[in-house]
Design brief:
Helix content of chain B: 40-55%
Order of helices and strands of chain B: HEEEEH
Oligomer: heterodimer
Distance between the termini of chain A: 23 Å
Strand order of the largest sheet of chain A: 1-2
Strand content of chain B: 15-25%
Structural class of chain A: mainly alpha
Largest sheet of chain A: 2 strands, antiparallel
Number of helices of chain A: 3
Helix content of chain A: 40-55%
Strand content of chain A: under 5%
Number of helices of chain B: 2
Distance between the termini of chain B: 20 Å
Largest interface: A-B, 30 and 36 residues
Order of helices and strands of chain A: HEHEH
Number of strands of chain A: 2
Shape of chain A: flat
């Protein structure tokens, strides 16, 4: 049985990938809180990326095949909001709120994933380990 | 993996803020350093700027120290003929370090450092939870 063919697992995988990437983008914003002319960026919301990740993409049969447009890494959107005289647009409080939000999302998804796996192992007749 | 990337980025941010604190410490420690020869300039306040540069080795962008420069502002004069750095008229150049500015800068560096540390801890707990899925 391939777990990626089951709707919930595939969805959880996409959501985890989204949370991973968002964490890297937010870390970049916070690390650059003192860099002149740096503008923070963020990933588009998960709901709006769903139709791009769920779309059928072209298979790459050879390494020199071009990848299908829109597939792969999500594009971070740069926000333009200058705060200080140095042209830096990072607001630490807003960024840390987003980090907390990403962390909660990741925690929720991993918990659901584990619960779902436990249900499978129960259905297969193994005693639940947790 | 993106979480490892996030760890590296936060570590680079902490590194940059540490360098900033080092410069602040140097400025504060030298706020009374005058020149050694008659009419010489006193200690000049150092400034630090950051940039987001792509590291050639990893191909990832991370914050780095761009330049440690000097504050070109005017140095005030004080009448002190006995000082070895006094000029022909008996005036000594004083460092252009303002301890209020340095302390405020220190606060900002501290705040930025702890923000990076929070992200690092958040990323670590996310990694932990991912590994937990294997159990």
């Amino acid at each position: 049985m391939d777990p990626t063919q089951i709707g919930l697992f595939a969805l959880a995988e996409h959501r985890l990938a989204w949370a991973d990437q968002r964490q890297a983008v937010l870390a970049q914003n916070i690390a650059n809180a003192s860099t002149p002319n740096f503008q923070p960026s963020d990933l588009p919301s998960f709901a709006s990326t769903l139709d791009t990740v769920a779309r059928v993409t072209l298979a790459r049969t050879q390494p020199n095949d071009l990848p299908a447009p829109g597939g792969g890494a999500l594009q971070a959107i740069t926000e333009a909001n200058a705060h200080g005289p140095d042209g830096n647009g990072v607001a630490l409080d807003a960024e840390l709120t987003k980090v907390a939000d990403t962390q909660t999302t990741q925690s929720l998804v991993t918990a659901i994933y584990k619960k779902y796996l436990t249900m499978f192992s129960e259905a297969l007749g193994h005693a639940s380990s947790s | 993996m993106d979480l490892n990337k996030a760890l590296n980025i936060s570590a680079a941010g902490m590194d940059a803020q540490t360098m900033r604190l080092r410069v602040i410490a140097e400025n504060l420690a030298n706020q009374d350093t005058t020149g050694s020869s008659p009419g010489a300039d006193a200690y000049r306040r150092k400034t630090i700027t950051f940039e987001n540069r792509v590291d050639a080795a990893t191909g990832e962008a991370a914050v780095q120290v761009k330049q440690i420069g000097q504050d070109k502002s005017e140095q005030t004069l004080r009448y002190d003929p006995a000082n070895p750095a006094a000029n022909a008229n008996g005036y000594v150049k004083l460092p252009n370090v303002n301890s209020f500015i340095e302390v405020m800068d220190m606060r900002e560096a501290e705040r930025s450092y702890s923000a990076n540390l929070s992200v690092l801890q958040a990323t670590r707990s996310m990694l932990d939870r991912t590994i937990e899925m294997l159990k």
